[in-house]
Amino acid sequence: MSDVASGRLRLLVAIASYGTANDKYLSRVIDEYRTMPYSTDIVVLSNVPKDLGEGIQVVVGLPTKDPWSLPFAHKQAFVNRVNDYDLFVYSEDDVLITRKNVEAFLRLSEVLPDNELAGFLRFENDKDGKVFYPDVHRTYHWEVRSVRSRAGYIFAFLSNEHAGCYMLTQQQLERAIQSGGFLVAPHQGEYQMLETAATDPYTQCGFTKLICISHLKDFLVHHLPNKYVGRLGVNAAHFEYQIRALLRIAVEGNTPSPLLDTHPEFKASRFGKNYYEPIRRDLVSLIPTSARSVLSIGCGWGATEEYLALSGKRVVAVPLDPVISACAQARGVELVQGDLKMALARLSSERFDCLLVSNVLHLVQDPCEILVLFAPLLSDAAIVIAAVPNLLRVPVQWRKLCGVESHRFLGDYARSGVHFTSRGTVRKWLRRAGLRVERFADVLPERAQAVCRGTLGLMTPLLSSEIVVVAARAR
After folding, report:
1. What angle do CA 83, 84, 89 make, to 5 degrees?
2. Are strands 314-319 and 153-156 parallel, antiparallel or unpaired?
3. Do 304 and 206 sit in the same domain of this protein?
4. Is 113 helix (H, G, I), strand (E, B) or coil?
5. 3-class DSSP state for residue 177?
6. What SS3 class is residue 295?
7. Going by C-beta distance under 8 Å and a sequence separation of 6 or more, which residues neighbour residue 242?
8. Which of 139, 146, 191, 443 could disulfide-pair with 269, CB 3.0 to 4.6 Å?
9. Which residues contact 254 (CB under 8 A, 6 or more apart)?
10. Are the C-beta atoms of residues 44 and 58 closer than 8 Å to each other?
């Protein structure tokens, strides 16, 4: 920090800027760096020449023929100059990094262990100035067991490691290079190629990215286009519910368990549980009007559960974890916290007319266990409604056949953390749990609906994106 205070910090910034569409944001980003009191060099990597003013080096060219490979060009630039700078910053051309961000990163780098990095989160503003967080969406979530304290700062791990930027001190960059995972050919895995270039330090170089939730404002960076507002991510209220829950875990000093312990190798996030699942009116429509009570296993932020409760039914939800449950609690959803067996014990005297299990069964080692455990809580005429992704779907099988990393081991639970799912698989799970299938109600993408109608439903098992099943006790 002494170098920062005296202005002697040597800073190398690499910015990926494809084409010209983001040039207005690029100009704003460069102007911000020029205000910083450091010895700063800026390198812009592009596929086209750019005149960005005096002192800005523009390197034109792609690492490979794939235009998405451009962000990987920054790595060689960092390696070539590893001995010349104290801090290295990579970002996309629309991510605004401020002096406050730089100084906060350097401050925390002094207190974090060598294998931990302070990371950043993007935010956006709508036209009224309200804040949204685009990196917190779908399957990405806070790991409840990751909360930790370092020299008075509180950190947690968000499973989405992409924020369009990262920083490394000279020592951290040297460690990344020595790991063998930094200077690598353009590639993609859990993330697409664009995101992979910005996450390799965390996913391949032995570092864990932690968000400093106790001083969060210092680690927020503005995604200037604000293009995800209303489309991706959560608003400030739902984000803050989760941050308060994380801070409460730190203060109380407990280590809570999530509902489910999914396989540690599970990386295919697109097939995980959507923590921010929209209201599932299709599932709600399958619940008989005579059903007075519903038990929801694997509740995320509670939109469907709130909708059901407002319809007049009693709804009890067992949430995925005590962080996302803060959102459901704010909606007024009745919750029972804990892992499967804890929840079962707390509900042992209850009876429900419907068991709702949305996109959970395929992620646990024994899918039948959930059904068997909670079957005693069902009334005599109760039904079970379960939804799982359809992994027999043609596009999924094609990507698996082509060796796409995120699909490569799907169906091999030991290697992917995801069970293969089809109508036949789901029927087998239910039968083993003492349940019989009453009907399937597959979810069809709009483009596939005409094809399925034209084939009288014969193509439905191969084109549906999701399998929804209604079952009852076997007689």
Report:
1. 100
2. unpaired
3. no
4. coil
5. helix
6. strand
7. 136, 142, 323, 324, 326, 327
8. 139
9. none
10. yes
Contact 340, 326 (CB under 8 A): no
212 and 308 together in one domain:
no
pLDDT higher than 70, residue 7: no
Q: How far apart are CA 45 and CA 27, in angstroms?
A: 14
- Give me 340's structure tokens: 């499967």
What pairing do the DSSP bridges indicate for beta strands 39-46 and 56-60?
parallel
CA distance 24 to 460: 46
- Picking from 230-234, 284-288, 305-309, 410-414, which range would have the lowest pLDDT averaged per residue? 410-414
* Residue 295 contacts residue 347 (beta carbons within 8 Å): yes
- CB atoms closer than 10 angstroms to residue 461: 17
Structure tokens at 75: 């790595």
Q: Which of 219, 252, 285 is the last residue of a domain?
A: 252
Residues 293 and 377 in one domain: yes
- The residues facing 295 across adjacent strands are 316, 355
**Could you tell me which residues come within 8 angstroms of residue 2 by beta carbon, excluding any fewer than 6 positions away?**
none
Q: Where residue 3 falls among pLDDT bands split at 50, 70, 90?
A: low
Which pTM was predicted? 0.94
As a whole number, mean pLDDT of residues 62-87 equals 97
The CA distance from 89 to 6, in Å, is: 20
The β-bridge relationship of strands 87-92 and 165-169 is: antiparallel
86 and 177 assigned to the same domain? yes
114 and 216 fall within a common domain: yes
Question: What is the three-class DSSP state of 43?
Answer: strand
Same domain, 241 and 182: yes
CA angle 351, 354, 359 (to 5 degrees): 125
User: What pLDDT score does 2 carry?
Assistant: 46
Is there a single domain that holds both residue 179 and residue 289? no
* Dihedral pair phi/psi, residue 29, rounded to 5°: -65, -45
Kindly indicate the confidence band of residue 237, based on its pLDDT and cuts at 50, 70 and 90. Answer: very high
Two tokens, residue 39: 């010895």
pLDDT tens digit string along 177-200?
A: 999 999 999 998 788 899 999 999
Closest CA to 49 of 62, 58, 57: 58
For residue 55, count CB atoms less than 10 angstroms from its CB and return exposed for 0-12, middle for 13-18, buried for 19 or more.
Answer: exposed
Domain with 421, as residue range(s), is 269-473
Instruction: Pick 314 or 408 by higher pLDDT.
Output: 314
> What is the C-alpha separation between 220 and 121, in angstroms, rounded?
5
pLDDT above 90: residue 429:
yes
